[in-house]
Amino acid sequence: MQKKSFNELGVNSDIVRALSKCGITEPTDIQEQAIPIIKSGKDIIGKSKTGSGKTAAFGIPLLDSLKHSSNVQALILAPTRELAVQISGELEKFGKYTDLKFATVYGGVSMFHQVRDIKKADIVIGTPGRVLDHLNRKTLKLSELTHFVLDEADQMVDMGFIKDIEKILRYTKKKKQMILFGATISHEVELIRRKYMNKPFVAESEVHVTEEYLEQYYYNVQKQKKFSLLVHLLNVEKANQIIVFCSSIRTVELIAKNLKAQKIKSGMIHGKMNQNKRMRAIKEFNNGNQNILVASPVAARGLDIKNVSHIFNYDLSKDPQEYVHRVGRTARAGESGKAFTLLSSSDHPVFRQILQDYDLNIQEVIIESFPRVDFDVSSAKRSDNRFGRSRGPRRNSSRSNNSSEGRSRQRFGNRRSNRNDSKPSEGRSRSFGNRRPRSNDSKPSEGRSRSFGNRRSNRNDSKPSEGRSRSFGNKKSRPSSFSRPSRNKNPKSSKVGSTILNLRSR
Fold first, then answer.
1. CB neighbours (10 Å) of residue 195?
2. Topology of domain 13-205, per CATH?
3. Residue ranges covered by each domain of the chain
């Protein structure tokens, strides 16, 4: 089916002109579905991943439907300050040739300028906590509100904002358009739909990984050696912009601190950082002044961080779908990308679930040896077994190849001698997932190889290892020790670059 243009979707010519100035010339799948529904005034649930253009999906029809007045007509709630600022910036660009006014409200800064902006605003974009502050102070009135938008609704629920959202809704009139967008529709989000929405349409852009341009690898590594392997990979990979994902704030801080100790320049972002530091880290990364960003998934969710060439999963989230969200930040707009996942024993169950839920080709790489570096865990709590028990600050060691990773109480197991002449990339590899047929000009890996299932083509420039390789197709039956019921009951997205759109009325 041929895509419709913005003009064909009925978008105002002034907004189309502004979109063109931003380099947006045709709608994405989620925009093509959502824009007509929102313009019609009907409630909608949009299910779409980061990078699919969902801000424009609800922002364009909002701008098209509103006229400047003396009252706040639309409220957009976002889970983080960074996302609120990002949404506001995009709407201002899209509405450049309109007379609509915007106010962005979030915590951590003075309310004075926010109050001034609210008085003139048609659209308010903010975080739930600060919006409630303004409502309680009566500096924000929603009695004439016609549009209520929840962006990243699933994340807001996860962050515990559901009660704040319900309190805010009490300040609004019953008759209004409800617009809800998120990457997933959880049980709690479903409760919002039932309680506050009127037979919403559902526009769904299925979460998928564009494997045509994305190479995915995983490494089995002892937990105590993870950081050493990360440093090694950062040193050997020719990367432009890198995001290192960690599942906890403490891990983000530890990794960032220890990278600095290794003289590897990096920034970090997590939910407990103050506003200025978070905005500075994102700005430095997007400008290319900082090519490594260590991030927690919650802090990075929804942010359009550009030009990412490599993703490193230092550990895995308990939610299998989080893997797809993480790796989906690279290999965009026809550009190639790589994703590396470091697996210790605690990561195996969720990794098995990822393979069960998604049709992915993730190759194992086995590195026989790599330099060992120190890992200071002194900032970790003693009760946290994940990082060991710290004995406090330690002295830096210049013997990177022979020093243990960390100076914690726990001792690590027998270590192999690190051979300076051994290439870290030499090792065995095996892959999980369906493989394309090997092209004729592709050289097989040196050593023994065997494969099971359909083989995909191996590109010469993407071989991570020399040595033995094995490939395993996706298996429906998994070892009982690793399997658990799938939480993703939607059909798998198995075709490269495929998008499933489901539009229905509830």
1. 9
2. Rossmann fold (3.40.50)
3. 13-205, 214-374+424-472
**What is the SS3 assignment for 356-367?**
HHCCCCEEEECC
CA dist., res. 476 & res. 373, Å (int): 39
* Strand 501-505 to 310-313 pairing: unpaired
Is 214-374+424-472 assigned to CATH 3.40.50.2300? no
Rounded Cα distance between 322 and 290, Å, is: 24
Please report where in the chains the tokens 């023994």 appear, as a residue.
448
Q: Choose among 123, 118, 365, 140: nearest CA to 236.
A: 365
Of 346, 338, 286, which Cα lies nearest the Cα of 309?
Answer: 338
Q: At residue 471, what are phi and psi to the nearest 5 degrees?
A: -125, 130
Handedness of CA 327, 290, 247, 185 (dihedral sign): negative
Q: What is the DSSP letter of 225?
A: G
381-252-365 Cα angle (round to 5): 110
How would residue 154 be classed by pLDDT, with cut points 50, 70 and 90?
confident
Q: In angstroms, rounded to a whole number, what is the distance separating the alpha carbons of residues 4 and 25?
A: 11
The pLDDT value given to residue 405:
41
CB atoms within 10 A of CB 481: 8
DSSP structure string for 455-491: BPPPPGGG---BS-EEEE---SS--TTT----S--SP
- Residue 365 pLDDT greater than 50, yes or no: yes
Least confident of 64-73, 146-155, 443-452, 461-470: 443-452
**Between β-strands 201-205 and 214-220, what pairing exists: parallel, antiparallel or unpaired?**
unpaired
- What does the DSSP assignment read for 69-100? -SS--EEEE-SSHHHHHHHHHHHHHHTTTS--
Q: Cβ neighbours of residue 457 under 8 Å, at least 6 residues apart? A: 436, 437, 438, 439, 442
**Does 13-205 match 214-374+424-472 in CATH topology?**
yes
Q: How many Å apart are CA 167 and CA 441, to the nearest integer?
A: 63
Closest C-alpha among 379, 18, 400, 433 to residue 227: 400
One-letter identity of residue 288: G
For 70, counting Cβ atoms within 10 Å of its Cβ (0-12 exposed, 13-18 middle, 19+ buried), the class is: exposed
CA angle 93, 155, 341 (to 5 degrees): 100
Report the DSSP pairing between strands 429-432 and 362-365: antiparallel
HSE toward the beta carbon, residue 44, CA cutoff 13 A: 29
At residue 207, the pLDDT reads: 52
User: What is the rounded distance in angstroms from the CA atom of residue 379 to the CA atom of residue 62?
Assistant: 46
Q: How crowded is residue 346: how many other Cβ atoms within 10 Å of its Cβ?
A: 11
